[in-house]
Amino acid sequence: MLQAALRSGAASRRAVFEVFARHLPGGRRYGVVSGTGRVLDELERFRFGDEELTFLRDHQVVDESTLAYLADYRFSGDIHGYAEGDLYFPASPIMVVEGTFAESVLLETLILSILNHDCAIASAASRMRNAAGGRPLIEMGSRRTHERAAVAAARAAHLAGFASTSNLMAGHLYGIPTAGTAAHAFTLLHDSEKAAFEAQVASLGPGTTLLVDTYDVAEAVRTAVELVGAKLGAVRIDSGDLGAAAQEVREQLDAVGAFDTRILVTSDLDEYAIAALAAAPVDGYGVGTSLVTGSGVPTAALVYKMVARETAGGRMEPVAKRSVGKPSRGGRKRAYRLFDEHGRAETELITTSDVVPEGGVPLLRELVRDGRTVGAEPLSAARERHAEAVALLPLEALHLARGYAAIPTEFA
Amino acid sequence: MLQAALRSGAASRRAVFEVFARHLPGGRRYGVVSGTGRVLDELERFRFGDEELTFLRDHQVVDESTLAYLADYRFSGDIHGYAEGDLYFPASPIMVVEGTFAESVLLETLILSILNHDCAIASAASRMRNAAGGRPLIEMGSRRTHERAAVAAARAAHLAGFASTSNLMAGHLYGIPTAGTAAHAFTLLHDSEKAAFEAQVASLGPGTTLLVDTYDVAEAVRTAVELVGAKLGAVRIDSGDLGAAAQEVREQLDAVGAFDTRILVTSDLDEYAIAALAAAPVDGYGVGTSLVTGSGVPTAALVYKMVARETAGGRMEPVAKRSVGKPSRGGRKRAYRLFDEHGRAETELITTSDVVPEGGVPLLRELVRDGRTVGAEPLSAARERHAEAVALLPLEALHLARGYAAIPTEFA
């Protein structure tokens, strides 16, 4: 595409591309904007070096004039986007890229890869946060997804409300609190469960979390309390009927005065399993597989579509394809959220007009101006924004069941 | 775990960890071993440098003696595994790691992340290959998954039978043939569809693939044939009822003598949609979302479990936890595939004995000896092995419907 457009001269035409979802997959009520910060980071690094150019030349992927263009490539246009952590709904233009066709079309895969992954994980994580009702969630899914996706997943989960992650690289890169517990292998390594618990407490102190389901849960809890007493930080249960097991363990702990020893549960938890444990005496959830796979929705269905371009005459003109069953709306969009008299979100308003609707909160902010990043912010800001945005949704938005978007998208 | 085991002294005990799947998720008939080569590559690079150590020290994640251990870390043990591209079934020990507890337990996340991702993608890709019945498949899913997972997904897809990928980095790193087509934005950029087609053919020659569903398919095909004639390489249809559209386009092309112009289809294809197009005049499939998300099974459910460890007395002893509902079998395994008199695979035999069963083909091969990689091979070898292994399965293994493993796993 780039080579042909360079040859026809159309490559230098101004163009506007928008990132949006035609629908919210999985019957979700809202999507979560996540990955914006990663897009900005990667944009700084998105260059074609000698290694890449040599490959493209040796394999005759593109011609010499295209290689020359790529060698000098640096995005010099503008990007606006929804603030990271904010919510989105069908057709919300969560990122708007403006520049020449050539410089903008090259960003499609980079931007979509990051946003499709991160938004999918954050959207699942946000549902888990709602289901957990204030109890802390630990992200433990690194082993269940690609080794680099795991780091991004931990970031998206923290943005959407997870308290901590077991991924140390995510702790290092993004300042997310890290947490972990021992595995069954640690208990099995020692000559007895008691020896394993002793070793762990000797090294990590009484506040540590002991895994109690390697052999027999009741016996393990007895051993743990005998060794550590009421100062034991937590126990983890990783199998069986977690609610029933937690109830028994709680009674066992309370009977010996270990009222402050917490009970953590893990084992294929998703938002539904978490919700089902609401009445159980559980103090925290470790979530792995279902988090990093988006709990049934591993990709966010976001697309990157050209909505306007310069004509031969130099005028900007809205464009849209007419493909069957894939609606697209031409023209560069503005987006506003409208709230009712109680301050609850009511409508997602998308418009191609410059007129600001009364009471509408503008959702697009400047991220990149003339190729320079101007909209970077710490992950903590996105995390706070997300909690605030969810709190302003109608209550039915927290329903876990499949359904429609929590607020309607209207086009003006 | 590492810190506590270093302190208790158990860290230096010999241990055996095995990677296996307790079941094949999604009712799949077989799993595909993929990622072995990436594990070997990453193992060479798996070190803790100053940056990582400083993070761990500053955040008090581990103590000084653990930091010292990590600073010198280099896996020095042995790894055996199923050959890449081979198949696996429930309980197949697809990778066996032997070393000290400390050096082996550190590899859990690295190995599982790679294998859980790559096996999931390859297993889905293999089903698509079966459904395509010899027609070429192009991997086009980069935009729908994490930016680095996309490169690994292209590798796994090629291993399992995809002809090519649109991911240029995968072409560069793994020598996979690359292919791509123009997007709707390219057509929309130009002042007419004809101008876009002219630009593309001028730059890429008549053998290029023209996208014909931006406005009206029949009109686009007419324009394409008028411009290029019967030498037109291919057209791509990306929306609507692909089978019906392909039929109409084929008739239109044949009517003007463009018998060799191929028809490529894309648009949310998965193995079921591909199978449903078997009778349509389609010459190739581009697959995106469903491939990179494992077509409903985005992670392979592989676990990394310690199955044997050295006792205080220096003897190796099988171990297994007794957690409810999560069966594990202790002891280091050997695995063999048994074939019937027609050469069809019949049984996956797993044993802790050293006795080789009559006619059994051993499935574990040496990958790493004393920390050195000895089992590396080109991706093409894994690709050929995969095609051969599928050809030896019972025919019912190619059923797309949910069901049981194609051959039973037996324990001796």
Automatic annotation (TrEMBL), chains A, B:
Gene3D superfamilies reported for this sequence: Aldolase class I (3.20.20.70), nicotinate phosphoribosyltransferase (3.20.140.10)
GO molecular function: glycosyltransferase activity; nicotinate phosphoribosyltransferase activity
The UniProt record lists the keyword Ligase: yes
Record PTM text: Transiently phosphorylated on a His residue during the reaction cycle. Phosphorylation strongly increases the affinity for substrates and increases the rate of nicotinate D-ribonucleotide production. Dephosphorylation regenerates the low-affinity form of the enzyme, leading to product release.
GO cellular component, as recorded: cytosol
Gene Ontology biological-process annotations: NAD+ biosynthetic process via the salvage pathway
Domain Nicotinate phosphoribosyltransferase N-terminal: 1-116
Primary enzyme class: ligase
Cited Pfam families: NAPRTase_N
Enzyme Commission designation: 6.3.4.21
Pathway noted in the entry: Cofactor biosynthesis; NAD(+) biosynthesis; nicotinate D-ribonucleotide from nicotinate: step 1/1
Keywords assigned by UniProt, alphabetized: Glycosyltransferase, Ligase, Phosphoprotein, Pyridine nucleotide biosynthesis, Transferase
InterPro entries associated with the record: Aldolase_TIM, NAPRTase_N, Nic_PRibTrfase-Fam, Nic_PRibTrfase_pncB, Nicotinate_pribotase-like_C
Transmembrane segments: none
Function: Catalyzes the first step in the biosynthesis of NAD from nicotinic acid, the ATP-dependent synthesis of beta-nicotinate D-ribonucleotide from nicotinate and 5-phospho-D-ribose 1-phosphate.
NCBIfam families attached to this UniProt entry: NAPRTase_put (TIGR01513), PRK09243.1-5 (NF006698), PRK12484.1 (NF009131)
The family this protein is said to belong to: Belongs to the NAPRTase family.
Protein known as: Nicotinate phosphoribosyltransferase
